[in-house]
Amino acid sequence: MFAVIRIGPTQYHVKVGDVVEAAHMPGTVGTTIKLSEVLLIDGQGRTTVGTPVVQGASVEAVIEAQHRGEKIHVRRFKSKVRERRHIGFRAELTRLRISAIHA
After folding, report:
1. Whose CB has fewer CB within 10 Å in the chain, the N or C terminal residue?
2. What confidence tens digit (pLDDT) does each residue in 66-91 have?
3. Residue 37 CA to its chain's centroid (Å)
4. Domain containing 23: what range?
5. How many domains does the chain divide into?
6. Do 103 and 48 contact (CB within 8 A), yes or no?
7. Taking the model in full, what pTM does it have?
8. What pLDDT is recorded for position 77?
């Protein structure tokens, strides 16, 4: 059984036991959260597609970590003026472990 869920602007294809790195979500490590934006569920020989979400469906996930991602370096250079600029960015991420899919 698998599901397609939406967390923020991103869609994830998940099944029970998967680990997902998503955009930062409020909560502490070890708490269980309920994700209700389920776009598709497939299991037991049938597929349910939502319009846009499947009514009554949800996915439970446990927050494993709240951390920051890899650093992204943004460099800008303007020729003739010899202007250089460097910016670093690290996204706040949440690691989720999918514990249950409810249809």
Report:
1. N
2. 999 999 999 999 999 989 999 999 99
3. 12
4. 2-102
5. 1
6. yes
7. 0.80
8. 95
